[in-house]
Amino acid sequence: MASHFITPTLQALAKYPSRPLFKQYVPQNGSPSWVSISYETFLHDLERSAAYFVETLPALGLKQNDVVGLWITGVKYSDLAHIYGLARAGYVPEVLNAKITIPIIRDLFAKTGGRALIFEPTFASSVGNDFELPTLPIPELNSLSTPSSALPPLPDVAPTDRGLIFHTSGTTSGIPKPIPETHRWINSHAQVLWPRTWQCYTDGRPLILNNIGSFANIGSAVAIAYLSWSGHCMVQTSKSDFEVDEFLAMLKEGLNALFLYAPWFSKLLNIAKRDANVLAALQGLSQIIYTGAALNPEDEIWATEQGIPVTAMYATTETAIAMVTPFAEKGILPAMRLIEGLDYKFIPTRGLEASDLDRDSEHRVQGGQLFDLFLPAEADNCPHESVRNRPDGHITGDLFEEVKPGLYCFRGRNDDWIRTGKHFSFCDTKSIEDHVLTSCADLIRNCVVVGHYKPGVVLFVEPTKDINSPEDEAALKSAILERISAFNARLIIHERVNTLSQIVSVPSGSLPRTTEKGNIRRKAVEEDHSAILDEIYAGLEI
């Protein structure tokens, strides 16, 4: 494989000039509608973008292989063209989503070495005039000219050099974690992992599938690399949790495969149980892949019984796709196998019991050994060295149980990250707890953040002083909110403790703890206080 990831991408784009690569969502009179963009058009657009950056960025003091921030809406076709155009110009795009703020961009650049910021023009007022590095608004594609001469050669890169930079969906101490994707990683994703994941792709018929989220996030942004390599097409949705009428309209656009996060797929299955047209539509697809979480067992059984061609997939921003349900093995959801040819292995997890898992995972375990998934450093999609958490590779932090030889089921996380918010994004509970304990040391003795697979987070606190009245409790909560306000503002919305109702005061020492270390047991807190939590979640708007 060529070292720079854009080289095989360009070669692949040129193979299918007349095929549709992207169907842009352009609603007509309030109804779903799309405009097709061919492989040839996209290639032309990215080359025009590249030519613009080749001309403008050196004048700002930048050179090839510099990291350049690209702050985008994540919903425009042009966002994709500019990500790949910036890469073709020889730079390393650090893709920034619309929720990130200028102070956070400064912090991210300090970690990644970002040298300039190219921003969506509607963000101009946020950028202001005091950003320390060069800034440039993203040009409109239709304003760019066709290159009058050949683009310069791509820079020399090593397979393990950074090709693109994305970020985690949650933050650590108010800063998303940068996740560089190496050239080796992107090429492996496009040419090995993707074709082996979509197992219905056996007759050469192009897949036409939906995007999964914003183009500022890795799942959709890297799409061009894997779509072009296989000759596939992506249909843009109006939002991640698109409505049923949009799903049915996409079928008329040729949609023949579906790529969804588990929560929305579960909602779609519930609709299909009542709507024969939706059920027939799901049954008629070539393959449906869900990811991000497990379905509830009832949905898994029902989907299998109805002949819906569904497979589970395990992937992370750090590792790309690692596991998928074998398409030919029926009735085994949510079990998955490692993708053939990957140099991974499972290693036993030590010091963790099933009772330490979240409620759903504990319910599912069958009494077997729990395993960590380990990627050695030499694996093609082992994360960049700045991300690895082992000297010889990387452990994902997710737990698995072998339910049959070679078949593994996801069994939750082994650390302090939970999934929360509208799209069940990651949230680093420990960083929030540490800040609360530091800023409110005179007010509380201990605390814990809960909210796994819930609309938002709730903070439980044990006060240093007795609470004798509702007024005392309200005063305590108000003081906590005031002290964490600056930190809170830096968090992504699903991580924030914004209201008094998201703080629960309990007597000192009453939160359940582990016997050996005395750590607060997050899952047990959720179970012990389920009634009050249900009431909080019912009134929570994120």
From TrEMBL:
<dbReference type="GO" id="GO:0031956">
    <property type="term" value="F:medium-chain fatty acid-CoA ligase activity"/>
</dbReference>
<dbReference type="GO" id="GO:0006631">
    <property type="term" value="P:fatty acid metabolic process"/>
</dbReference>
<dbReference type="Pfam" id="PF00501">
    <property type="entry name" value="AMP-binding"/>
</dbReference>
<dbReference type="Pfam" id="PF23562">
    <property type="entry name" value="AMP-binding_C_3"/>
</dbReference>
<protein>
    <submittedName>
        <fullName>Acetyl-CoA synthetase-like protein</fullName>
    </submittedName>
</protein>
<dbReference type="InterPro" id="IPR042099">
    <property type="entry name" value="ANL_N_sf"/>
</dbReference>
<feature type="domain" description="AMP-dependent synthetase/ligase">
    <location>
        <begin position="14"/>
        <end position="327"/>
    </location>
</feature>
<comment type="similarity">
    <text>Belongs to the ATP-dependent AMP-binding enzyme family.</text>
</comment>
<dbReference type="InterPro" id="IPR000873">
    <property type="entry name" value="AMP-dep_synth/lig_dom"/>
</dbReference>
